[in-house]
Amino acid sequence: MPEDIQELGREGAATLKRWLEATTYMELPFDAYNNKIDCMIRTKGGKQKQLDLVGYMLTEKKAPVFVECKRYTSAGKQYTEFVKFLAIAYGHTAQELADYNTTRESQYYWVTFHPFNLDNWSKLETYEHMKKALEAHPEYLGDDDLNESLAHEVASRVTVLVFNPKQEALSLTRAELEQIRPVLLRKVKTL
């Protein structure tokens, strides 16, 4: 990958990490540029995929969060990549279910700097779209048939967000975030 594109990706991931953490609902300590192994997920069919940011929710079950960042300035190939991301999310959850007979109820975020596929925008997070993604990428099913119940569940845990760089000015700064976190009690010790 050309170095300038790599740097754009690094900057995009860092920007989105700050923005998502400023929501106070998640913490993303791992990024693909500094923590490659921590950002790898295993899917059905023996596939591995590295995502841009990995962390956990700060509420309820502390579910894992996997984020794919796209710093595009136009729609480009985003839709094709998003469809693959859906299949990866399903394949990762299906592999957890196969390994542990349960899942960690991971949350999957696709965050882009530019919207894409606006004709289907309201349908991107649906079971129907998940099913289409797995038809396009059956390698993420491994040797299994589609588990419709699991596909519904995983689709409900996919979130598509569009980030406008102007939003950064509307977010909490790192210093502000550290001041309010103790008041919110989202990071209360569980033991």
Can you put this structure into words, describing what you see?
There is one protein chain. With 191 residues, this protein is of the alpha/beta class. It is 38% helix and 18% strand. The protein contains five helices and seven strands, in the order αβββββαβααβα. It has a five-stranded mixed beta sheet. The longest helix is centred in the middle third of the chain and has 23 residues. The radius of gyration is 17 Å and the shape is globular. It starts with a helix and ends in a 7-residue tail after the last helix.
Highlighted features:
191 residues, alpha/beta, two-stranded antiparallel ribbon, 38% helix, 5 helices, 7 strands
In short:
The protein has 191 residues and is α/β, with parallel strands linked by helices. The protein has helices at residues 3-21, 78-100, 127-136, 148-156, 174-184; strands at residues 26-31, 40-42, 48-50, 53-57, 64-70, 107-112, 158-162.
Globular, elongated, flat, extended or rod-shaped: what is the shape?
globular
Overall pLDDT:
90
Strand content: 15-25%
- Stretches with pLDDT under 50, minimum 5 residues: none
Into which percent range does the helicity of residues fall? 25-40%
Class by SSE composition = alpha/beta
Distance between the termini: 44 Å
Number of strands: 7
Number of distinct helices? 5
Q: From the alpha carbons, calculate the radius of gyration and give it in angstroms.
A: 17 Å
**How is the largest sheet built, in terms of strand order?**
1-4-5-6-7
Q: Characterize the main sheet.
A: 5 strands, mixed
Order of helices and strands: HEEEEEHEHHEH
